[in-house]
Design brief:
about 170 residues; 8 helices; mainly alpha
């Protein structure tokens, strides 16, 4: 059993219902337990979340939904990190779900746009160019876990939009 899984099992004894609910969401309904590439699994789960947010007809409403998702993600990531007792557990993928949803925000849905945004988001999330990496250094706890993915999602979204303008 991997060290992180052993620590996770040890953290189960003191779980309140709130902590359990946070862990369910933070681990992407279990997708964070996939042994290879849990972040990719979380990002895949972020696609329907992002497409769902895009169905909100009002731009302000969809923006508020994203803000709510970010706050909720920070809380769930923080509670789960503290419950497990170690920093930025790989099983926490709510940050990838949120970052992918942000990358899709207000982009017309097509197979092409989803695939390109998925690739862009994962590249920025994995390689953490400036200013993505700095988000981990500026914040702590659940906010640190989530904000680098928020920034990766923002950059993917903006870069896609720039690419559309340049290539049209």
């Amino acid at each position: 059993m991997a060290a992180s899984n052993q620590k996770e099992m040890a953290g189960k004894s003191n779980e309140t219902p709130f902590k359990k609910i946070c862990k369910i969401f933070a681990t992407g309904f279990g997708s964070g337990y996939i042994p290879k590439a849990p972040g990719t699994a979380g990002a895949l789960l972020g696609i329907p979340v992002g497409l769902g947010i895009n169905l909100i007809p009002d731009t302000g409403g969809s923006f508020l939904a994203l803000i709510g998702l970010i706050v909720f993600s920070c809380i769930c990531a923080h509670v789960t990190e503290k419950s497990l007792g170690f920093e930025d557990p790989q099983t926490v993928v709510i940050d990838e779900i949120t970052g992918m949803a942000i990358s899709l925000w207000l982009i017309p849905a097509s197979f092409f746009s989803v695939v390109i945004l998925f690739i862009l988001f994962r590249l920025f999330d994995i390689y953490k160019p400036f200013p993505v990496k700095q988000m981990e250094d500026v914040f702590t706890g659940g906010v640190s876990i989530v904000m680098d993915d928020v920034m990766a999602g923002i950059i993917a979204n903006v870069l896609f939009r720039v690419g559309e303008v340049v290539l049209s």
